[in-house]
Amino acid sequence: MSMKWRYISYEVGNPDWNMAVDEAILLAHSKDLVPPTIRFYGWNPATLSIGYFQHAKKHIDHETRKEKNLGFVRRLTGGRAVFHDQELTYSVIVSEKYNLVSSSVKGTYRKINQALELGVNHMMLKVDDTNSSIQTNISSAACFDAPGSEEFLIQGRKVIGSAQTRQHGVLLQHGSILIDFHWQDFYDIFSFPSEQSQKSFEENLGTLSQLCGRRVTIGEVIHAMLSGFEKGLAISLEEQKLTPYEWNLAKELAETKYSTSAWNEKR
To answer: Parallel, antiparallel, or unpaired: how do β-strands 3-13 and 235-239 relate?
Structure first.
């Protein structure tokens, strides 16, 4: 019998709200106020998010970003810079007391990636047998230029980038599932340390539309990933809304944390 989890259906939010909601769910779940949760969301405006430990200004042209009305936010999770635009973003929030969460970071990534892989399979795409097809010693501050050891590739390209944190006994993993990618906006605001690193990024990033050879819709990606999570994690998803506690906490976090320079420019 599959365990029941909550599903927060797809909505588009601004960067501070998106990050605030993920943290509010984590805190509510840590108090046993809500069940384990999977959430899907999008971004308006298109946003550059950076990992918790990243430098806020290195490689980033904030003047151009502001001129182009693109968002900027520091994530609660680690990892490198991600440009959120034409994608489905997912988050998985679950207490460490559940079997899904391994003491090993890699082990937990592997379990969640199995669910993501099933979602990809639902779209008639096959995950590569190994991620060794990306051979690069070039590292940039941008995500998607190379896979993590537990991430997978499709036709030699990285389509899903994920990041993780554990706080208050709860795991939060969220990530970007790329449907399309607006290269010019990203290049206008983010500078690579070398031409080689930019070329590596271009060669290693993939989108679902590119790999499917057609325009993929957000609706079909949602449908595929819901199926993948239910099968891959052996859970049953029940659609619910945020509780008043989560909503109010998210509003507070958005205003006092994720929209502030004290948080976003702390490094």
So the answer is: parallel
Which distant-in-sequence residues (6+ apart) come within 8 Å of 174 by Cβ? 22, 75, 77, 89, 90, 91, 92, 162, 163
Helix, strand or coil, per DSSP, at residue 42: strand
Domain count, the chain: 1
Active site residues: 143
Structural domain boundaries enclosing 12: 3-264
Which pTM value belongs to this model? 0.90
- Assess contact for 137 and 150: CB atoms under 8 A: no
The more confidently predicted of residues 91 and 59 is 91
> Which residues neighbour 245 within 8 Å (Cβ) at sequence distance 6 or greater?
28, 33
Q: Under DSSP, is residue 176 helix (H, G, I), strand (E, B) or coil?
A: strand
